Amino acid sequence: YPSEFLMQKITEDNQIPVHLHVSVSLQYVAGLKGNALIEFFHGNIAEVENEELRHLMWSSVLFYKTPNVEVMACVLLSTKAIYFLLDDSFIHADEHQSDFWNRENSDCENSSFHLSCCFVLKLNDLQSVNVGLFDQYFRIAGHTADHIVTCLTRDSYNTHTFIQQLMAVLSLLARTPSPEPVDKDFYSEFGSKNTGKMENYELIHSSRVKFIYPNEEEIGDLAFLVAEKMDSLTDLQSLNILLYVLAFQVNHVEGSAQNTSLLQPKTLILTSSDLFLFDEDYISYPLPEFAKEPPKRDKYQLADGRRIRDLDRVLMGYQTYPQALTFVFDDVQNQDLMQNLTLDHFGE
């Protein structure tokens, strides 16, 4: 340790997504290569002398206590813990976080010293990992609300790679083995005999950490929700969700210094007849065991919806990934066509 292969891989992975802006301190981390990166980890982040860095990933993250603040992080997986090296702008984003972060280094603010916060989740405290639909994100959960983090990779490959590395590292943990399970048939293993309803697919790792994957019913629930937002004549049987992807909606800000673009996280859902943008709660569902009441907002909230037949053209940017798409819709003269998307059932 470190092997040449590991150093090469971590160096390749150490790239900030081009569409996301980060602070100077994280730009410094992204500039490190090979051995310098390993030394930086052991000198500044690692808590134990003999732990090994196994994987590095850049991702947007959400915390359970601050579900509205998405922040860029460098996620480092070692043989002892998962470290989230956070953009220092995150600390100022929400005044309710002062208890959460308990920051004492405010005297550093005006100096040339760039500070980053590092959130640590020890592998021994890890209880479950929930993988989101189509591997677009995953949620890591520990014992308390402070230990629930969602990584919005927006990329199935990054999600898959991280989960594989995490399973490999968890296999090294010395935990007391679980009692041997009684042999069960498929139906009693995955279903409740009382209801005949399939539960979410769970894989219990040898370290006793649960890896929970969505089942077909989640897509069914999503299709039902989408059908509610569409014309009431829609036949649910014929409704197919063709695409589910976590994306950003670009809001162009005119008049600012550089005509900057604000990126708003959105869930894009494409059906055979409509295109929808939802605001999705990626951190609160499924409810953690300690939750006393449901979250304040629904998992999916409709932000916009348009019919495909009103789509005039799609403009594609020429830059490499991430690709920018502009959907141009015809102006609909008769607004009644869209009323079911905007009406509030309980409003006036």
Structure description:
Keywords: Cytoplasm. It is found in: Cytoplasm. One of its GO terms (molecular function) is kinesin binding. It comes from Psophia crepitans (common trumpeter). The chain has 348 residues and is of the alpha+beta class. The protein has 2 domains: 4-174 and 199-212, PH-domain like (Roll), CATH 2.30.29.30; 216-329, Roll (PH-domain like). It has 8 helices and 15 strands. It has helices spanning 4-13, 24-30, 34-45, 98-101, 156-170, 186-190, 216-229, 339-342; strands at residues 53-63, 66-78, 81-86, 117-122, 128-131, 138-141, 148-152, 201-204, 210-213, 241-252, 261-271, 274-280, 300-307, 311-316, 325-329. The strands form 3 sheets. A 9-stranded mixed sheet has the order 4-3-2-1-7-6-5-9-8. Strands 10-11-12-13 form a 4-stranded antiparallel sheet.
Q: Which key phrases capture this entry?
A:
348 residues; PH-domain like; nine-stranded mixed sheet; four-stranded antiparallel sheet; 15 strands; kinesin binding
Number of strands: 15
Shape: globular
Find the structural class using helix and strand composition. Answer: alpha+beta
So what's the CATH class of the largest domain? Mainly Beta
Give, in spatial order, the strands making up the sheet with the most strands.
4-3-2-1-7-6-5-9-8
Tally of domains: 2
Count of runs of 4 or more consecutive helical residues: 8
Order of helices and strands: HHHEEEHEEEEHHEEHEEEEEEH
Stretches where pLDDT is under 50 for at least 5 consecutive residues are 192-198, 336-343
Distance between the first and last residues' Cα: 66 Å
Second rung of CATH, namely the architecture of the largest domain: Roll
Give the biggest beta sheet.
Answer: 9 strands, mixed
Organism: Psophia crepitans (common trumpeter)
Domain Nischarin C-terminal PH: 241-347
Keywords: Cytoplasm
Main location: cytoplasm
